[in-house]
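Model: Ready when you are.
Researcher: Fold this.
Model:
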Amino acid sequence: MTQKLILVLNCGSSSLKGAVLDNDNGDVLLTCLAEKLNLPDAFITFKANGEKHQADLSAEPNHTGAVKALLEEMKARGLDSKIGAIGHRVVSGGELYSDSILITDEVIAGIEKCIPLAPLHNPAHLLGIRAAQNIFKGLPNVAVFDTAFHQTMPEHAFTYAVPHELYEKYGLRRYGAHGTSYRFVADETARFLSKDKKDLRMVIAHLGNGASIAAVANGVCQDTSMGLTPLEGLVMGTRSGDVDPSIFSFLAENANMTISQITDMLNKKSGLLGVSGLSNDCRAIEEGAANGHKGAQLALEVFVYRLAKYIGSMTVAAGGIDALVFSGGIGENSELIRSKVLSYLGFMGIYEDHEANLAARFGNPGVITTADSRAKAVVIPTNEELMIAHDTARLSGL
């Protein structure tokens, strides 16, 4: 084990995820999840060596309290003195950052400037950054941006067909998300297929409660489904994905809803949850569909159909397709979703190998298409924390 470990932090508005990684071999030595932050019953759960335990955060139920509790846990395990740097997931760097960067006062100001592009996420990331700077004094901190990978998109891909002055004045354009995952998966796919990344035309689907898809060619992102915010694109757990923008005026006039109510509905009450009326969890949706739940069956078909359509469009963006890649919690574990998606792609010469598809679950990568398919569909587990750790070690000189 290296003497310099990396602490990775991912802060939400009411949560904090943390992981202590050995950057040399990718081993995860400790993880934590703080929940219900800013509420009286806040708590944090630690996991190491397959065992879990919880700690109460009611004395300081915020991000600072969570980081302090994490430090105490690390001390108890003799890990605190081995931390060499801290990496932070940051959702939006806008057009300011096309790569990860050491955090300075100027970078903090830049993240603050991007708050309008990620109003739910960037403020929470800043809380985590400041807590880490105060509690782990003297250690370098690195920001790793979800949007950075997508900064290679050509202008015609990121531009909305609205008055151009809105982009010039307010930065209204498509930014994408999940970029850290895409960067890791693109590299892993090339390695798994024994190809040079620059020679592969990849369409990568990152499927989880939040879901998106990206086209990668010549080693860089050409297009992605998420836009100004993570609401655009695919059907997700609670997000609607693409809708007619006139839904706002329609619901304002007919349902007496405000802009904030409609935005909240599209982000938190739509997607699989909204269509099914059952759950936002794909596992519950699949189980419900198998048991005859009509809402779950419809939600499943809408999810798969939208994804299959986007695969076609991203194939255009990539200039063709050599590899269709499934990743993320759903992409890695749901053979049913993958099978249904592939059933739409026969016209592209892409055919499912059923037994291989069944085998590629629970962390097992694999090619899930037949030998005569014109392109390979593969399952590649993502590891955003390790990607963040690699960037953090590189920029910190470890």
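Researcher: Now this one.
Model:
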Amino acid sequence: MTGTARDITLYGIPVLHRPTTPVTEFGPELHSLVADMFASMYAANGVGLAANQIGVDARVFVMDCPDTEGGPNVVAHVVNPVLELPQPPRDLLVRAEGCLSVPGQRAELPRPARAVVTGVDMHGEPVRIEGVGLIARCLQHECDHLDGTVYVDRLTAKERKKMLAEAGLPRP
């Protein structure tokens, strides 16, 4: 699959801050979008990318995420993902998290240690990804994007303002 790397949408651009639209058409346009998303993610040295991070209002993400448990990378794309988290009480992992839309910044953020995403691929075939550690974090991070939430939105207002200022991005 070849694609064209597109510019990464930065924090503050409206498409990043609202829920994305579910995909209803599964044709060549979606296939091209997925290819461009992988190309964009690789060009930016990311491990995951949501469609709105390249300015597209579509409920799609791609990932090529290392398994911190020693397994192979999870390379996948998911259309219309649904995130499932364990019932409370949940084991939380606090780890440094970053985002291509907030370049050069990282912050400690608690997330559930396990996550499952279900959806379909670009052909409409069912997809299920289950992960722990970094894969679980990636699944949650990308689904957050598709819901209009950037990880810095989960920080305190003071932490968020400091990080956005350091990244040279507009503060809310």
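Researcher: Key takeaway?
Model: The chain has a mean pLDDT of 95.
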